[in-house]
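WARN no homologs supplied; continuing
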Amino acid sequence: MPPKKAKTSRAKASQDAPTREEDPDDQGPATPGKKGETKRAAKRKGKNPSHGAPQLLSKESESPGDAATKGPIVIVPPPTTSDPILAGVDAWVQATLTLGVGGLKKQFLDVKGYQSPNQAATAFAANPTKNRYPELTCLDETRVKLTPEVPGEGDYIHANWCRLENHPTVYIATQSPVDASIVDFWRMVWEYEIVTVCQLSANMEDGKVKGSNYWPAAAGQFQNHGRFFVNNKKVETEESFVTLTIELLPDGCSNSRMLRIVQYDPAAKEQKKEAPLVPLKTTRVLRLIRLLDRGDKLNKGNTLMHCSSGVGRTGTFILVEWLLAQLYSGRKPADLPELYKKLRGQRAHAVQTEFQYVFITAAVLDYCQAKHPGRYTEAAVNAFIAEAKELGKTAEK
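OK structure emitted
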């Protein structure tokens, strides 16, 4: 169902003031460890194929403490291909490895101040009790508007539509509901026919409240939120994710709807003894994309994404998926700065830290290497991911 346009005003709200999203507990996903150099990659070092001269990975992009790699890494161009999409992927991988983590950090400095041309956020200002973080505005132009059904209901929820041209998946990026907005959350799910809710944060992290309990945790349990009956039909665990099958039924309606809530599993995080403040890795984000895609092919509808604030981990995930979609569509060269601005123009404050920005590229690079094994200089890809991991460790502190 298409979003309704909200009226805008000239009220301005700063999009880049220091926010709670900059706290370490929502710095975004962490990257996987280095896999090590394969024999294939080692044999390819130093070769100079006729289709292009090898490039050297800059000192700034070398893996910190990499005992297996001595000196600069030779970036060997992949074999030529007649497939235009693969050629585009090749060009992006080569450009990314040449740019390195250091170059991406500089790129982030150039774009991080970007704001939507229309900063009006009047509905946000008028509903302070429904905003989890008062410094994180919700743009009027792209906000999700609810239809009041009973007296006392308003049309506001801290959520925005996020769309990419020629891309079938439409995201709603939102905060984890506060107690005063749980009913509005379920109103949004019902009105806009949400088939998937993806939760990238736990309600409690590192002793801090990050969300409210808006769904029953165990199969067979139910909750009532305002006029909505929320029934947990099934709980399934797949590695680090828990999928809940939820039945949603509003008062006065004879037909319920089924949806799923896919949540990162905090129990798995504790079992693996990972850093509690950075719960996701590139491999898990890619696995989550596959998990969501598998269900959405069967159930066409909008996908609702949220973390605590709906801008850090949520924005990071959306940009990983958008960059992959752009890269493999073949319609135009993949352009992360352009996508970053496009997302920020729809969801204010999305992706605030350089680690989140670097992580997006690391996840896509990881995907390309896995999809095309042996095609790219594995030592260079692993060094890039390892350096991103070191950046993530700094973000934890």
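The longest strand covers residues 228-238.
OK
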